[in-house]
Amino acid sequence: MKKSYSTLVNKKDIQSIAIGGFDGMHIAHQKLFENLDENGAIVTIESGFSNLTPKSFRQEYTNLPVYYYVLDNIKHLEGKEFIRLIKEEFPNLKKIVVGFDFCFGKNRKYCVEDLKELFQGEVVVVDEIKNNGTAIHSRYIRDFIKNGNIKKANEFLGKNYKIVGSQVKGQGLGKSDFVPTINLQVENFLLPNEGVYITKTKIKNDIYNSVTFIGHRVSTDGTYAIETHILQGDIETTYNNVEVAFLDKIRDNKKFDDFKDLKAQILLDIKEAKEFFN
Q1: Are both 110 and 222 inside the same structural domain?
Q2: Cα–Cα distance between 248 and 152 in angstroms, integer?
Q3: What is the phi/psi pair of residue 13, to 5°?
Q4: Which of 35, 81, 242, 277 is the most exposed place for a label (fewest CB within 10 A)?
């Protein structure tokens, strides 16, 4: 269950804000948030490209209220107009926290120095945060995920990357011919590249060790699927929200000409996942 503080906090009480896209709510973002006061808040600019923590999923990773502004509604504003809007929204604002590369306003032509000049209050600029010499940026994390490098993505995120989906009807082959799976339809989240992953699956409030397949069913009907198998046994569920957190990748997607070979590989994947958790 995601926390939702934004509607519970009076904006007049907010004295400091962090502004940015904050897709991923990763380690570098958390460093920004550390500069906020007790009466702080997070202002997220929604560009439409957020797919690591889309929409209100960001609220799950902070105890501060998160407010969302659609970029298309504000990108025409000049610098003074943008600051005026922020001051109208948060009348007692005393501090703004941004990253070193923050830009705003029409054509993104206003940046950190302009912010310091236009805002009559404290401006905190957080330097670039690195992990073993590599800058932590959402775009790098997306690349890791798209390439199946889940361990590196998690390292930069500071948590396990996860997707959330709703259960849908599958082929029906899992329980009858292979192993039972929960089939998911996932929207808005960036999906790892095709393959088999060691995962944890959360259903309601219970978390299970699992193996998850993402990709085209090249050995059966060729359709794209997201299927997660619970290692502890067959779990009957019809819950809309099923969360799958990725821990590591076992292998790429592969075509098998014989169902026996496919089932043997699935059992090997399960064995490897069990050894990982043990």
Answers
A1: no
A2: 9
A3: -85, -15
A4: 277
At a CB cut-off of 8 Å and minimum separation 6, what does 187 contact?
A: 165
Count of the separate structural domains present in the chain: 2
Q: Do 117 and 206 have their domain in common?
A: no
Cβ pair 274, 231 in contact under 8 A: yes
Residue ranges making up the domain that contains 176: 160-277
100-121 tens-digit pLDDT: 999 999 999 999 999 999 999 9
On whether both 166 and 273 belong to a single domain, the answer is: yes
CB count within 10 Å of CB 109 equals: 11
Taking the C-alpha atoms of residue 120 and residue 118, their distance in angstroms, rounded to an integer, is 6
Closest CA to 215 of 264, 253, 251: 253
Measured between alpha carbons, how far is 176 from 174 in angstroms, rounded to an integer?
A: 6
Give the β-pairing of 182-186 and 162-168: antiparallel
HEC readout, 248-259: EEEEECCCCCCH
